[in-house]
Amino acid sequence: MESLGILNVTDNKKNVYCIDGNDALEIKLVRNPEDLQSPRFSFKPDMCHQVFGESEQIFGYKGLKIKLYYAAGNLTTYIGIEYEEKISTPGIEPDNVMEMLRNAIQSRFETNITVFERLLQEDDTFHPHGNLTNAFSIGDGLESKTFEVYVNDTSDANFLEYHTKVQTFVILYIDAANYVDPDEGNWKFFLLYEKYLSSNMVTKYGVVGYASVYEYYAYPSHIRPRVSQVVILPPFRCIGLCSKLLNSVYSYYQTNRKVVDITVESPSPDFQRVRDFVDCKNCINLDAFSPAKLKHGFSEEQIRQCKERFKINKKQARRIYEILRLKYTNIHNDEEYNAYLAEIKDRLCRPNKKRIMKRRFWSYFASDPDEFYVPALPDNGTLQDCDEDIEDEVLELKEQYDLVISRLNRNH
Ligand SMILES: CC(C)(COP(=O)(O)OP(=O)(O)OC[C@H]1O[C@@H](n2cnc3c(N)ncnc32)[C@H](O)[C@@H]1OP(=O)(O)O)[C@@H](O)C(=O)NCCC(=O)NCCS
């Protein structure tokens, strides 16, 4: 229940003393001491409900700024809280920002900037935990940047401590993300670093991205790795790093004979687009996906080649087929284009058709077909409603596929 004190505060006053946590929070990856005074590598969270509560609002301060600074490699952490004014109405407590951060961050941090600045020196000797699994460069000449991917499991206590710090990024960028419990099972963690030369000419590592993979057991002695959480930190987005990181995860598992296939847990639309691009780019040169074979429809051969070469499952193989088939379809030729759309529609309709047929079948035998386990149509819709929904779905899919195709055409 709202306290009497709060009832005395006018709405206006409430607004003045309320700030969106995403605006208040400034995250910074400090590579060189001079970065402390510059906006370089500063960025905002995408969300902060796991830190400041569902509304993401912080109450009780005017001009609040929260600095969440990290040494870019070893992730030594500093938290600084600054504000112009704190609410001082009797009976009204401002939010305890430090306590909220302490609960969410779950690892040690400094609150004295001079101590943090001194500790930054230790980042010169930081080397990533785990085993190097991939290295690559992006850009040309002086613009070229080098990246390395390290893989870790849950057996190294030092890494687990480090991982606790990395997980703060996960809750600030992935909706409904949970902290991974390392005792829970078979996790692998892929950390992506930029390897760079610092202002004092030391080769250093700076965190830029992260992927966690859960290795599910598959009978009799196999595994099915499932990509769970992937984050590329905002200053490093849109230069192709997620696609490189995902390919690094694939390469890590592709030669492992125990791996049945690699799946992804509830991919966000942005991530699914990267995944589609990576998978299509990998498969485009497979014999089964040649333009001539694509014209003959989705085939067992495509499923087999996807699985054998890239550990891609049937559902994703179908998506790759649909994207590549669209790439080679002349959308200005009505016959060709309509045949393509009809095929997608047919695929989307199939589960509904099955449901309808099952319901019709059971209605001969039972006065109430719901007595049997036959799922109803969405929202008790008719076949016609269903058709309209599916028309929309086909066009929505085509829009998604177009974005992947234009990335394939740009080739980055
Ligand atoms: C989703 C996410 C991981 C993508 O990371 P990313 O490194 O930016 O991905 P990529 O750079 O490979 O591709 C992103 C875009 O950059 C574009 N791009 C890649 N290289 C480029 C270049 N050199 N120049 C211009 N654009 C480029 C791609 O074409 C792609 O464009 P699109 O969005 O129009 O398809 C990142 O946005 C993120 O961390 N989001 C928050 C967390 C999240 O949603 N995670 C996934 C769910 S678990």
TrEMBL record:
Q: Catalyzes what?
A: L-lysyl-[protein] + acetyl-CoA = N(6)-acetyl-L-lysyl-[protein] + CoA + H(+)
Q: Where is this site: Interaction with histone H4 N-terminus?
A: 187
Region spans: Interaction with histone H4 N-terminus: 54-56, 214-216
Domain Histone acetyl transferase HAT1 N-terminal positions: 18-175
Q: Which GO terms describe its biological process?
A: subtelomeric heterochromatin formation
Q: Which InterPro entries match?
A: Acyl_CoA_acyltransferase, HAT1_C, Hat1_N, Hat1_N_sf, Hist_AcTrfase_B-typ_cat-su, Hist_AcTrfase_HAT1_C
What residues does the Histone acetyltransferase type B catalytic subunit C-terminal domain cover? 275-326
What top-tier enzyme class does this entry carry?
transferase
What is its subcellular localisation?
A: Nucleus
Where in the sequence is the active site?
265 (proton donor/acceptor)
Q: List the Gene Ontology MF annotations in alphabetical order.
A: histone acetyltransferase activity; histone binding; transaminase activity
Q: What is its EC number?
A: 2.3.1.48
One GO cellular component assignment for this chain's record is: nucleus
Keyword field: Acyltransferase, Aminotransferase, Nucleus, Transferase
The family line of this record is: Belongs to the HAT1 family.
Q: What is this protein called?
A: Histone acetyltransferase type B catalytic subunit
Species the sequence originates in: Rhodnius prolixus (Triatomid bug)
